[in-house]
Specification:
Layout lengths: L5 E5 L3 H11 L5 E6 L13 E3 L4 H11 L4 E4 L6 H14 L3 E4 L11 E5 L2 H7 L6 E5 L15 E6 L12 E5 L6 H10 L4 E5 L8 H9 L2 E5 L9 E2 L2 H12 L3
Parallel strand pairs: 1-2, 1-4, 2-3, 4-5, 5-12, 6-11, 7-8, 7-10, 8-9, 10-11
Length: 252
């Protein structure tokens, strides 16, 4: 194996996990996964893994060069805009081929009651008058944007609890990791008498059941739109990333 086949995957998504498993089976590619470290106990991957930031663009450039990375695949969460922009800039500075693996966004269908919000602050501003019991399905990092809404009650779902010093709105914190079934999501909304949902437009299958349940129950969904991603080559599925790697690295 040569260093020319070394690939860095910026991970943290199910797509990154799937890609890592596929590349682990290919001896001509030496794949390394990098996780930001926001989850204290990430699920193990099928390839070597590093955890933690790089120290901005300069740190990522240095890593790409010292590790002799031949190709960079950004498979981070659609809302991890900063690392995506850093990756694009670092790839341009080093001349390393760069691909974004981005799952498609969810799209509303007949029966959905979606209200678009361009930020979590905008989403919070839409809630008074819309509902009094809200399901916040946005993770732990953005809870502070809703902390001032003391007159409302929130069911907040996250993989891990927020730091003790982080402000959060009144309500109940539910620690769960997806995927979630439609039956479980419907029961969750009904048992907590939820009147509206706030969700990031993350896309994917792992957490889409809450949107189907909301549609069935006639509940409004405040949908936080994705931040803009940097320009560059982009695919929506792991198979597309594999094909890009084969073409880029000249491997079969």
């Amino acid at each position: 194996m040569t260093t020319a086949s070394r690939v860095l995957i910026l991970g943290g998504t199910g797509e990154a996990r799937h890609l890592a498993a596929r590349l682990a089976e290919r001896p001509e590619i030496e794949a390394i996964a990098s996780l930001a470290g926001r989850t204290q106990q990430p699920n193990p991957l099928a390839i070597p893994m590093r955890v933690g930031g790089f120290g901005g663009v300069a740190g990522l450039v240095a890593y790409l060069q010292t590790q002799q990375i031949a190709a960079l695949i950004d498979a981070t969460h659609p809302f991890a805009a900063q690392i995506s922009h850093h990756a694009a800039t670092a790839a341009a500075k080093t001349g390393i081929p760069h691909l974004q693996l981005v799952r498609p966004a969810w799209q509303p269908v007949t029966g959905d009651r979606w209200l678009a919000a361009d930020s979590h602050a905008t989403a919070a501003a839409l809630l008074p008058g819309l509902a009094t019991r809200i399901f916040l399905s946005i993770g732990r990092q953005e809870l502070a944007a809703f902390a001032h809404l003391r007159q409302l009650w929130f069911l907040m779902r996250a993989i891990e609890p927020p730091p003790p010093e982080q402000p959060q709105p009144p309500g109940q914190l539910l620690l769960q990791r997806g995927p979630f079934t439609l039956a479980a999501e419907r029961s969750l909304l009904q048992s907590h008498r939820i009147e509206a949902i706030v969700s990031k437009n993350s896309g994917g299958e792992a957490t889409v059941a809450k949107l189907i349940a909301a549609r069935e129950l006639g509940l409004p969904v405040v949908m936080v739109q994705r931040p803009p991603l940097p320009p560059g080559e982009r695919v929506a599925e792991v198979e597309g990333a594999i094909a890009w790697l084969q073409a880029t690295l000249g491997c079969g």
